[in-house]
Known about the structure:
Blueprint: H1 2-28, H2 35-42, H3 46-52, H4 56-80, H5 85-102, H6 104-111, H7 120-134, H8 144-171, H9 181-197
Helix pairs in contact: 1-2, 1-4, 1-6, 4-5, 4-7, 5-9, 6-8, 7-8, 8-9
Amino acid sequence: MVIQEDRPRHAERREQLLNVAKSLFAERGFQSTTMDDIAREAGFTKPILYQYFDSKTDLYREIVAQLAETLLASLKIAVNAAETGREKIEVAFRVYFEMVVSETDAFRILFIHSHEGDTAKELRALELGLISFMDPFFDVSMSEDHRRQLAGGVVGIAEGAAIVWLEQQESKGWPTPAAGTAERLAQRSATLAWGGLRTVHED
């Protein structure tokens, strides 16, 4: 009975620590944030923090893993409801930018702050996951290498637009995004991507 009562509390505290770490990493950068900072901001002692996470790298990885899982799950649901190739591209951009705008701290960690050592591969893993997700949307008559290169290009458009938007937000002091921001970012990127994709043919 005690174990059942402790599990919700454990999960709640773990999520609280992840949220605090995400906020601090976004504000100060991964390298400049310490476990002491995270424990103090969360209102716990550092030994309690270490009961949940062995290091700030583990915290970082969990934040990115949650982001990747949520993003890919949302993309699958939205894209499965779309019919044409263009609709799938457009809805994928919309879901992506809705998450960039609503989960700004997580994307600040990914795109704005430098990555070194153990954290360098986390962004790459997310990018490769998105590329693998997009790959099947392209003409099956193309070679596998060709399709994957195009998928990488589409992911690059989304990532590049997200980075610029985040930098613009940072230069303005992180104001609350205007209504319709995600939709506008998605529409612009989808228009650019589709304008190129519709002219693509096998080499």
